[in-house]
Amino acid sequence: MSNKQESPSTVDKKAGTTERFSSAGFILAAIGSSVGLGNMWKFTYVTGQNGGGAFFLLFIACLLIVGLPVLMGELAVGRAGRGDAVISFSKLSGKKWWGALGFVSVVAAFLVMTFYSTIAGWTLHYAVQSISGALFESTDYQAVYDTFTASTAPIWWQIAIFIITGIVIAKGISSGIEKFNKIVIPGLLIILVIMLVRTLTLDGAAEGIRYFLYPDFSQLTFTSALEALGLAFFSLSLGMGAMLTYGAYVEKHQSLSAATLAVGAGDLAYALIAGLIIFPTTFTFGIAPNSGPGLVFVALPAAFAAMPFGNLFGGLFFILLAIAAITSCLALIEVPVAYLMRKYGHGRTKATVFVMIAMYVLALPVTLAAGGALSDVTFAGRNLFDWLDFVTSNIMLPLGGLFVTILVGFVWKGAGEETGMKGWWLKAWLFSMRYIAPILIVLIFLKYAGII
Ligand code: PHE
Prior knowledge:
InterPro entries: Na/ntran_symport, SNS_sf, YocR/YhdH-like. This protein is an all-alpha fold.
């Protein structure tokens, strides 16, 4: 199974992984990981539910005050540990049991992929249906969505996502993940700009922009603040070992603070553009911005149908979503693949095949639970899809983030040196890692657990 280039020798027992990104390749791959369904699908509907502009400001604050420091922490842990979440945690803490805490992230990434790939598959289907025009044959988009998710089609689209991502991962860091991101991320930007020009020239653009960018603080609640923080975490791919694992492939001379700023700016720019695409569209076509998770799949087709060349713009929009989702899937899959490679000395191809098969065994029932045959099989009010979404986003992700802050803030003494930061910046970073980030994470955790 193993091919020559990606043999087990990519892991050196002492030095850790020997695979490396180029500087630009790493930035693009990390932006690819962070920009995904979280920005376009989740960010827009959550912003819509929380009243628009003021929530966007909160999101930016969370990104700057907590998200970026934790991102830098994950990258530093990854690069210094040169391993997966488990190895890096135990190596830097000097205690083997810390590896078990890192393992939470490996499991989280594995589980997130099972439902993230379901939605990624939907986006591929919607892209094809939109371009062919089939999507617009009916005007009842809720019914279209229900029929599609209840059919067996999502299974095949999900398999397509698995095959595409599996091939890229098996090719390795520089000739797989880096190369793929280098091709598609600029493409993504081009599609975004085309979509932006289209939506900013719609009749309702001014109203949509006002809703999205003009802050009305009366709309905010305590829950909004927690949601903004959770979203900042998910959107920056934190707490699941993804940035940590990518960090292991970064060259020593690359500046981690510059990388952190670049990824933060990329993620924020993408969220901003996503909002500037979605809200003018919803206001122009009379769709409620707070219509919930179906906003992208149910509400937007109606808007595309009413637009000149709607099938083309709809197709572009869903291709954009699919690309963004696939580059995030790459980061999610790399977490358990990296773990298997280090743990069992498997070659990359073998580890990838193994992870993909194991993931698919769980991903299939998850897809069937998302509107299909298993959607009514519930346990304590949630089906399998809902459970995985709930447990990973609300429990495992904050926990994974919390462990990183404790490791960096209190346990591992070399964190400051690894980042290369000095003086005031270093102090501010450590202060956030020690006090601000963990306290806020615990708050989200307690909130979602229903304790506060
Ligand atoms: N950040 C991605 C998004 O916004 C989701 C993700 C989380 C990807 C964790 C990789 C790892 O959609």
